[in-house]
Design goal:
The structure is a single chain. By secondary structure, the protein is mainly α. It has one domain (5-91): Orthogonal Bundle (DNA polymerase, domain 1), CATH 1.10.150. It contains six helices and no strands. The chain has helices at 8-18, 27-35, 40-51, 57-65, 72-83, 86-91. The longest helix is centred in the middle third of the chain and has 12 residues, at 40-51. The two termini are 23 Å apart. The mean pLDDT is 93.
Length: 93
């Protein structure tokens, strides 16, 4: 699956941070970090592109939304993404 142009910056952010698919233990925390800034469908589409698959990602987005933003794994995911361009990504193009 290839993401549409408006999701390309998110794909680049994830690839910069992880060099490939998001590791299994970081998937939900990473989704939670991005959740407040993207639609559920767009987030599911990016995760399907980066990690493969398609059908399960919307369910994972809903699971991740229940995580607390101060959860240690979510904080760790935020720090990883910040080191790889999250602040610029949040500022937009």
């Amino acid at each position: 699956m290839s993401v549409p142009p408006h999701l390309a910056s998110t794909r680049r952010l994830l690839w910069a941070a992880f060099g490939g698919p998001v590791p299994p233990g970081m998937v939900l925390p990473v989704i939670r970090v991005l959740y407040d800034h993207m639609s559920d469908r767009n987030l599911a589409d990016v995760m399907a592109d980066v990690n493969g698959g398609e059908a399960v990602w919307l369910n994972e987005v809903y699971r991740a939304a229940a995580l607390a933003v101060d959860d240690p794994d979510v904080r760790r995911a935020r720090m990883t993404l910040l080191r790889h361009g999250l602040a610029s990504w949040l500022d937009g193009p």
